[in-house]
Amino acid sequence: MLEARRLSLSKRGRRLLDDVSLTLSPGELLIVLGPNGAGKSTLLKLLSGLWRADAGDILLSGHPLAAMRGAELAGWRAVVEQHSVTPAGWRGEELVAAGAYLYPASPPSLVRNTVANALRLTEAEELASLRLTELSGGQRQRLQLARALCQLLLSPRPERYLLLDEPTAAQDFAMADTLMARTKELARRLNIGALAVVHDLNLALRHGDRVLLLNDGRSAGCGVVDDMMRLDRLETVYGIRLAELSHPEQSLRAFVPLSATHSPKA
Ligand SMILES: Nc1ncnc2c1ncn2[C@@H]1O[C@H](COP(=O)(O)OP(=O)(O)OP(=O)(O)O)[C@@H](O)[C@H]1O
Asked: Whole-angstrom Cα distance, residue 2 to residue 160?
């Protein structure tokens, strides 16, 4: 299990995260929701080991993340950041194969198969031979997801975690839904703990196992989707009136903003 206990972080005299805790189990998809500036990316940077918290601990299967070096950490977790830099001149499959850099002793055929598998799982097969500079933002984002999957698929660690910062931000409506469904399915099938920061409440509703709500650097609750995704709670966190709609025949529900009463904090 990935366990974050009472994380806090300040920068330039501002509290970006304040006493935030969470658990992420292998096989589940935890969605992190919250308004702009709530601290979602900050939390992901701490969980990834890219930043260090001022207070609190992060444990991976009981081992402190703070004591892990880069290569060791990369076996436990793969990260897709919000803004990833892609090397000029690379083609899609080279980016995905970068996920195998930790395992130089892997047989080339295993790496080739893993890259192909990761491309297939992320609906990115047709991007393999194309130059990154000639791809759309959404296509590059899918390849980054494939690169992260390749890293985890080759890892010998008993527990693996996939940390995604807005993995569907550049995806069209249909692809966003497909990718979140895939992520959930992969988490289950490969027993990977997946955490995804998303903005779309309805993606969280449809695909999340559990939800962490962040507001102003603090936790506004963490629990199963039905408990967290309640109208009153979401209206408070987002500062907007919402309507909850349900499909007459299928057990589907969705949230839509009702009015322009939003009062952004910053
Ligand atoms: N390097 C930094 N130094 C100082 N403050 C920062 C830094 N990075 C982010 N912040 C501040 O921390 C707060 C949280 O930022 P963060 O990026 O974690 O929010 P977020 O919830 O991911 O927002 P968004 O939904 O807009 O991506 C913001 O107020 C931001 O201005």
From this structure: 9
- Model pLDDT for residues 171-194, shown as the tens digit of each residue: 788 888 888 898 998 899 999 999
Domain ranges of the chain: 2-257
Task: Give distance in angstroms: CA of 80 to centre of ligand 1.
Answer: 17
- Alpha-carbon span 225 to 101, nearest angstrom: 36
Closest CA to 167 of 159, 155, 176: 176
Closest CA to 224 of 205, 239, 243: 205
265 ligand 1 Cβ < 6 A = no
Dihedral of the alpha carbons of 112, 117, 122, 126, in degrees to the nearest 10:
60
Interval 98-156: pLDDT, tens: 999 888 888 899 999 999 999 998 889 999 999 998 888 888 888 999 999 999 999 98
Neighbours of 199 (CB within 10 A): 14
Chosen CATH of 2-257 out of 3.40.50.300, 2.40.37.20, 3.40.50.150, 3.40.50.1100: 3.40.50.300
pTM of the model: 0.92
Q: Is the Cβ–Cβ distance between 176 and 200 less than 8 Å? A: yes
Ligand 1 atom closest to Cα of residue 199: 25
Determine if ligand 1 sits within 6 Å of the CB of residue 9: no
**Which value does ipTM take for this structure?**
0.97
Residue nearest to atom 2 of ligand 1 (CA): 11
Alpha carbon of 44 to ligand 1 centroid (Å): 11
